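Same chain as my last thread, 83 residues:
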Amino acid sequence: MSSDYSTGLVPQNANELPRFIIDELQKLKAVLDILSAGHLDKAHAEPPRPRDGDIRYADGTDWNPGSGAGIYYYNGSAWVFIG
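reply #2:
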């Protein structure tokens, strides 16, 4: 499972709205569960606007911040390899 979340299309029929809301909340819960367990999706590109403290799992091929595949944090000016 991925930690990406995209909202579904809001139904036109108001009777379908309760089911839509339940489904969206379940999708959000699934994403929060894997994030709280410490999961990081493999990143294939640097984020467009990294912020101090960001953490990413670089794939090492499409995106290699310097030490190949692994986990990096952004220190405000550069990506630092941590494992």
